[in-house]
Amino acid sequence: MADSNTKPPPRVGVIMGSLSDWETMRHCVRQLEELEVAFERSVVSAHRTPDWMADYAGSAASRGLKVIIAAAGGSAHLPGMTAAYTRLPVIGCPMPGWSVHGMDSLLSIVNMPAGIPVNTMSIGKPGAINAALSAAAILALSDPALAERLDAFRAAQRDGVMQAEFPET
Ligand code: RP5
Known about the structure:
The chain is an alpha/beta fold.
């Protein structure tokens, strides 16, 4: 399953091992949309669709993608195997909800052998959001307009913290 729901050519590929990861990864996609980063999203499984994974990762750079965000749960091989097939930066998102609440996925994704890196986020929603922000930061290196949007996002976040008021006791 795959779709491309943006008009400009996608610069970020968001892939996940199962549609069951969408509940978490929708937060990533929402953040990309908020920053107006063109993306594509697909279900790509290292185990169930290994040939599609190799095709996807192997063709990503030539198709114009600049960054891949890969989410997986359990044994979570997708980010690492995707990184093995592309020189693009790969950001890995461990999915929660497994026997040890995603710790298995985190350790699987982060423990890459030297030579093939995966930039690993935290488990679940915070990591999904930070994956989008990290991808945006990479793209902002060569996109001043996106850099401005990222700065504005951070300024709004700062103001939200500074202006927050405690609720009534
Ligand atoms: C992983 O297996 C996926 O990333 C997902 O987190 C997990 C379970 O997939 P389903 O059995 O829910 O399809 O590859």
